[in-house]
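User: My collaborator and I are trying to settle a disagreement about how two of our proteins should look. Neither of us wants to argue from intuition anymore, so we agreed to look at predicted structures for both before our next call. Could you fold the first one, then the second, and keep them clearly separated?

Assistant: That sounds like a sensible way to settle it. I'll keep them separate. The first protein:
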Amino acid sequence: MTRVPRLVLAALAAAVALGVAACGGSGGEQQAPPRTLTVSAAASLTDVYGQLKTQFEQAEPGTEVRLNFGGSDTLAQQIVQGAPADVLATASTRTMQTAQQAGRIQGQPVTYATNQLQVAVRPGNPKQVTGLPSLVGPQVTESVCAPAVPCGAATEAAERAAGVTLDPVSEEQDVRSVLQRVTTGNVDAGLVYVTDVRSADGQVQGIDFPQATAQGAAQSYLIGAVAGSQDAGLADSWIRFVTGPQGDAALTQAGFRLR
């Protein structure tokens, strides 16, 4: 039998060891595969959820949170139609019920915050807007959310309470689009949430009006796990994070009211 030289055996052993180390992580242990969480959330949550995403990813190493923002009604319909998502966060009870009634929400959603309307105007309030009645007429142009969107439903409730009917130049599919119409100067005023005004960093001024607290005008925020989530445990972790102390702090700072 031909004997293999010791140097050759040593080289083979070293190569095998290097291959094992390359396949494993530190200490030969395999690294856990990355985990991805997809969250569909109301547009008015854009800033606060962006902040919580960073905090959550730091608390859960190896996790990536993908945020999908839009009008709550649109997002709920996407979930009903089977769009891939792990968590749904809406700006109204009605839109969350759309997904619930279709069997697309696992368990009971959590109501965790509320928001109310303000009239967003350009800094200095050049049109001297004082409330909803001052928006009526051709002297002021305004934008609102479409009625199917929570901020649109809230606007209609506020109009009824004030006894006025607005004639907006546009009805947008989410509240951030309304805000953008004001910040770009396309309209004089827009009906948005308190939190949207705060997020604009001085680009707009918020005008309070009493009908913002009328029945149906103040909106509740709900969050729930989507049935069939690819990572139900991670979805539950996100929900606990948003509704826990760190979420409460971020929401309060953004101008939401806690439930």
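The second protein, kept apart from the first:
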Amino acid sequence: MSEHLLEMAGALIRVKDGKIEVLTEPRVRFCPLRFGLYGIKIESRETVASTLRSHMQELGMYGPGRVLELQEKPVSFGASEILTDAMSEGLVDAAVLVCEGVGTLVTARPEVLQAVGAHMTGLLKTEPINEIQDGLEERGCLLLDRQCSIDQVPGFEIAVAAGFKKIAVTVAGARSQDAAALRKLGAELGVRPIILAVHTTGISNQDAEALAESCDLVWSCASRAVREVIGKAAKLQIGISIPVFALTDEGKRLILNRALHFPESLVMHRASLPLAPDGKQPEPLI
């Protein structure tokens, strides 16, 4: 028996004992990524519930039968896809992630990283699922604790203590203070974290400015602030409907490595950033 809180398309969702309850209406009416993946034209309580239900049925998410190794890369420029390719090439040797039923964890296996992150979205609070925790530990993962704490800063400390040097850390956009704390801690420990900000929908300009100062990669999601603040400061952008912005050379390297592994055609050209054409963005930007 467990309870979890998450956000999807700006809707707050509770999963309790395997049952889905959409607590609020989606704040995002249209998401081009979700349209491409699931064919959703207008978001509603039912569309977010249906998406989550499919993840639970196909991948066992939020339950004891969760899939913990995955080769499939469903999102063209998702965080897990970029990190999986980076880990495969040795650009990253460990990643600090968040998983339902577990909280913060450290993994050094790309197929585990992809399974954990491929469809993870906006996890706010989670309770223990022993089968997921045990399964990840059997696959060499390090857990922050068994109480499902979500705290990426001590997660990074665990990765450093384990001897990893090229450590990627995902942080939620609204927790911009975590990015600053990670940057400071990395300087103290002599290990520079690669910081990726995800789940940025609805963040403030102040959070965006803080992320711009500390992050290597930032996902725009349905955030107006990310496009307006971080996009202008970016060195490189990949994608146009949900742009991903690189703010450092380390971030650029991860994006270019994903481009190297990407199986479909791509175009690269010089442009002023952000490049975010009207009609191809989420609606509304918040």
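Some points you might bring to the call about the second protein. The radius of gyration is 18 Å. The CA atoms of residues 27 and 114 lie 27 Å apart.
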